[in-house]
Amino acid sequence: MPQRLLFAAICAALSSAVAFAVPLPTPDRDSTRKLARVVVVGDKQSAAAQPSSVSLIDAEEIRSARVFSVSEALRKAAGVLTRDEEGFGIRPNIGVRGLNPTRSTKVLLLEDGIPAAYAPYGDNASYYHAPVDRYERIEILKGVGMLRFGPQTIGGVINYITADPPEEFGGLLSLTGGSRSYFNGHASMGGGGFLVDLVRKQGDGARDTLELEQTDINVKYATQLGEEHALTLRGTWLNEDSQVGYSGLTEAEYQNFGRDYGFDQNADFDIDRYGASATHEWSPNADLALTTSAYGFYFERDWWRQSSTTTDTQCGNAFRDARLRGDRVDFDACNSLQGRLRDYDTYGIEPRLRVNWQAFGAPSEFQAGARAHWESQERRQVNVNSPIGRSGTTTENQRRETRAQSAFASNRFEFGALAVVPALRVEHIEYERLNRLNGGAGSETVTEWVPGLGFHYRIDERHTLFAGGHRGFAPQRAEDIIDGNGGLVDVDAEDSRNLELGWRAELSPGNSVEATVFRNHFLNQIVVGSIAGGSTPLAEGETLYQGVEFSGMFSREGWVGEGRSYANAALTWLPTARQETALRSVTSGAIIGGSAPGKRLPYAPKQTATIRIGHAVGAWDASIEGVYVGLQYGDFANRTQVDPSGQFGQLGSYVLINLALNYTPLDAPWGLFLTVKNAADRDYIADRTRGIQVGPPRLVQAGVSWTF
Hints:
The chain is mainly beta. Helices cover 8% and strands 52% of the residues.
């Protein structure tokens, strides 16, 4: 096929580029051990040179705030909205610049620069997320810089970075306990380029009967193979065994029994995720590096539940009607259980080249890469005539396969204070779907070219401007483009035109700001009416998002007596998040859910803000953080009246207050900490997609840490 020939040609070009590159003199490299890694943003100096918006959440901020979950960490970045689901932070729903956060489908998640999702091409919904304890810092990249990664190039790239293996033997032990039966044990130990990290956490979620357990092991080894070669190996295993269902509360249940009301006590969510990767870097000098990563993941998810939404009739009409009236129900009396059983295999290889050279008399940095990627999904549904059984009638048995080849190239031209960065990405995706129950089978291919152009202008040593525009692309899921009978569905990939203009300044050491104006115009956006996609058909249409982001970090000695005072702010104003055309079903063409031009898109609040202020003196470090999320709509029709199902209506604005206190004696290997999350115990609705999902109540936690 021509696309495969193109992919092979690009891989060959990477090798030939090595021979013809003309290196430029650069400063000597650090004499310490070199690590093979995929660089997404890099250090603060590299972040300041990006032609697009960047947010960095560093290890000190994560530690000082005693961050409880990935959701809490990401709220510290402008333009990012996270939505709680189970109140434990193990399945964050992440949205960027107004895009629906449901299942984090509109962002690209990476870990150490390598895909973290189990099916980023064929099914980008996230039912798995490693604990925040695994990560040392987090990078969020938006704009034209995203084209170096993929396939999602619309909202943003979130790169989680694990700790580097130490050379000297040492480690960390941290124990945390708190309200709602919370326990977290974190142990990390390494030396000689080897690191083992173990996290065990358990506790109760936002509602009664939500009992959650998660165990995570991350192993990392880094070594140098001579002067020019470095190798990093990683291995991970994560297990979760949780009593968590799918449905939310009806309006009457919420009013009658409050946010703690638990049901679906027979639900069971059990996952295992195994992953391994290797990154090799060949770097004969500071101007040339060829980094190659190979990765593979296996993800198994067994989810047994008795209710998927507040209006389903899995347990019968009388059961549903009782919930809508607000009567207490006994799920042990429901002789029905559904097992949604999923297995994913994902693996790939990706070489990436970086060359410093002279182009048209200007210093330049050329980057290029290619990826071969494979995914397979085994999907079964088993219906059981019992509240606790595990064998029954198979109603779904499918295999879905996705093969993808992609490549990118970008070059940074330095014309004095001005840098110009053109970039181009190509994605070629092959889908196959087999329905073993009826024999239906089908296949389809998609090829897309994704161009972009970025600018970076250095006003002086402290102030820079950046601007960029790029085409945004997100592939269809395998189930979107091929139906259950093997027929093709006329649904296009997501296609947007993304623009941004920003200002970045390093006012003084420890004091920096960044402000960005953005516009994301979707010629075609794919929207799903529910997480499962069943109650409302898949739809598409034209949409527009426009807004402003501001982030700032401030620190100064002596602002308030002795010690250091600090503040961090992340503010987002999204005045426009509207439907430009009515969103229509891809199968029937009918308008869905009361959609109409001019209506605001759901789960896109106009204002969000996270502001944290603190003071550190001697062994003490205390901070207070406020999180504000503005009013949101829960549906495409922008209904304000609450529906009895709890699935429609507004979600009111809310403010959360988080407190953190650290005591770390100088030169001591141990420390104590105390945190209060949602200190005012704010009762609020976080989501209405399948009924009312409440935010977590007040969480009080205390712990001790010891380093050696």
